[in-house]
């Protein structure tokens, strides 16, 4: 845990003296024992600074001391990992003193981890740890080299005779291939559930789902034609549909539906989290869809759609559920409180992992 | 390469409509064919915006169009990877439209990659790629779980009979265990030099070097007592001094001298880049140092100190070199133009890798 004291290294002082540009090193955020959080920011010139966070109903103003350090202590917060940012006058920015940045292409926010009295399912616990590998692969579909992350479970050995099932796990619309580990802690969730014997040891593949300036259907092609073959030729995995799952959040939840439901011979598990489905690909696939529901229901071992009741996509997701029910495709809904957040994402993943490959 | 056009996904529009808070998606930075760079930032309220970058002698002001988009095109820049930031009025921040953030604990800057006409040594090239693994290990020295990154070379197989030499590569003072890959591209440099047969296939271990609130000597202990044993029990490596190297930049360059020169039985290669040595540990180790220079010179196959002539540590590094020469310890200096930068870091590493384990 971070110290509440201001920690200033000798090196910081040197740099400050040399460049005369760096602000003083301050500690922010500090998570206090009562789970209140103290945020700090240094500015001698700002007129107003507020903190915005997904643990707050509305932004809160910081106040300034005579040394130019602005701060606020927000009341105790429910243990979880939350994104937040500062609005310095009209400029939104990540907390400059917090190393943990939300991996995203559109915004720069920080994340703060409020530990539970008992370790949470996404917490670093004293259990065997899997590892995350950053891999480069050639995408013939997109004509470029792309990066994906691969979680291999504790005890994984590429040469053993054990073969693993694989979950393909897709991030949200402006996220990156790192968001599921850096914000979603998919690796710790898997480590903990595997240690508790609540989840099967599995490989989790976290691709980069954005294909701009190409169009979304290219990602479906990429998963089928490039990513799955790359994984299956480089890892000891089970290569049948009962050993493949696809899951994703938001835009990735929509991609999950497109990828999974047009390839039910390849994926027996489809888990869509708060899907964004206002896309041409979804319309094309499902507007005049005449599925062979009996066949699909036999192929799928699990088809679930999760959403929070305060999610801005809640009404849209309810319509998705109605559509699939109307087509007689068995779908399980998992409706919880909360919004379109990575707090819910972690909960959805922790729930899914316990249902896969059993 | 990024498109010069403004790319706005359907999802961005949706979010913008829903929250009315997100600025428009704009493209920044755009590296133009002539290697000029266009930076953009959206603000309707800012009075002045400047771009600061290590490719600029002094900051340059942006200008605003009628839609609130500020921009500037800076003249052609020498191909390399550079950190930069925006000063919006008095607030320094990373480019919100650039995903690539400088991995650092103190500041939030962006990085921009100017490709060469021919691929540079740190560029992604069409060669076999190694992989980077994020590993957790228990540090008995620090009483906590820590993370380090491990580069394994192309074709690496943990079960083959091939055993690899290991470079322990340490970041700068406020950097993180990710800075050597995310900013220094250590993995691409190694991939390319191995493909050209200019470097031996090796494992590169990138630990997290900061030990606050503990003191620097604890990191020396951690490397010897925790990190090396973790690597040597989990990877097929050669465990003799001729197969171990230590290198590092800035504060990590100072750590390299402390770790390496107090353990010449363990490291035959010591490569220090622009070392910061105004530390108690360095003083304690070297102020009244009476080395057995003959023995050390026999143990070490390479001891090199690199620095740029415009580095703010240049005079200090010259004193370090004098000290070691005075003590009759053979040290090779590698003096180049440039400052205390990650551009030079990449150059130093690319030079070092060609001299290791031969």
TL;DR of this structure?
Two copies of one chain form a homodimer. By secondary structure, chain A is an alpha/beta fold. Chain A has nine helices and 17 strands.
In words, what does this structure look like?
The structure is a homodimer of 358-residue chains. With 358 residues, chain A is of the alpha/beta class. The first copy, chain A, has helices at 10-19, 179-182, 186-195, 217-234, 251-261, 280-286, 293-299, 314-326, 342-353; strands at 30-31, 37-42, 49-53, 60-61, 63-64, 69-74, 81-88, 91-93, 110-113, 131-139, 144-152, 166-170, 203-206, 244-249, 269-273, 302-308, 332-336. Chain A has an eight-stranded mixed β-sheet with strand order 10-11-13-12-14-15-16-17, with helices on both faces. In chain A, strands 3, 4, 7, 8 and 9 form a five-stranded antiparallel β-sheet that branches. In chain A, helix 5 (251-261) links the parallel strand 14 (244-249) and strand 15 (269-273). The longest helix of chain A is centred in the middle third of the chain and has 18 residues, at 217-234. Chain A is globular and about 70 Å long. Residues 1-20 of chain A have low confidence and may be disordered. Chains A and B meet through helix 1, strand 8 and strand 10 of A and helix 1, strand 8 and strand 10 of B. Strand 10 (131-139) of chain A pairs antiparallel with strand 10 of chain B, so a sheet runs across the interface.
């Amino acid at each position: 845990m971070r110290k509440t004291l201001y920690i200033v290294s000798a090196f910081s002082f040197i740099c400050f003296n040399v460049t005369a540009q760096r602000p003083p090193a301050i500690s922010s955020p500090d998570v206090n024992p009562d789970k209140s959080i103290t945020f700090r920011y240094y500015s001698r010139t700002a007129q107003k600074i507020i903190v915005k966070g997904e643990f707050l109903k509305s932004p809160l103003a910081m106040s300034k001391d005579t040394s130019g350090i602005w701060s606020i202590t927000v009341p105790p917060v429910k243990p979880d990992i939350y994104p937040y940012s500062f609005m310095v006058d009209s400029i939104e920015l990540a907390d400059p003193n917090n190393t943990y940045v939300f991996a995203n292409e559109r915004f720069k926010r920080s994340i703060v981890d409020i530990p539970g009295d008992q370790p949470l399912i996404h917490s670093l616990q004293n259990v065997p740890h899997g590892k995350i590998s950053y891999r480069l692969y050639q995408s013939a579909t997109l004509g470029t080299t792309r990066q994906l992350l691969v979680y291999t479970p504790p005890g994984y050995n590429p040469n053993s005779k054990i073969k693993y099932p694989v979950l393909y796990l897709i991030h949200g619309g402006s996220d990156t291939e790192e968001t599921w580990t850096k914000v979603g802690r998919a690796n710790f969730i898997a480590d903990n559930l595997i240690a508790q014997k609540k989840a099967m040891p599995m490989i989790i593949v976290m691709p980069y789902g954005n294909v701009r300036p190409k169009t979304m259907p290219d990602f479906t092609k990429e998963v089928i034609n490039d990513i799955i073959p790359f994984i299956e030729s480089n890892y000891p995995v089970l290569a049948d549909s009962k050993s493949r799952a696809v899951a994703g959040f938001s835009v990735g939840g929509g991609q999950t539906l497109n990828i999974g439901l047009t390839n039910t011979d390849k994926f027996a598990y489809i888990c869509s989290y708060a899907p964004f489905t206002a896309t041409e690909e979804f319309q094309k696939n499902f507007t005049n869809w005449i599925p062979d529901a009996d066949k699909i229901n036999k192929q799928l071992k699990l088809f679930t759609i999760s959403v929070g009741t305060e999610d801005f996509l809640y009404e849209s997701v309810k319509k998705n559920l109605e559509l699939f029910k109307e087509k007689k495709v068995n779908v399980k809904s998992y409706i919880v409180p909360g919004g379109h957040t990575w707090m819910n994402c972690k909960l959805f993943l922790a729930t899914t992992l316990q249902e896969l490959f059993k």
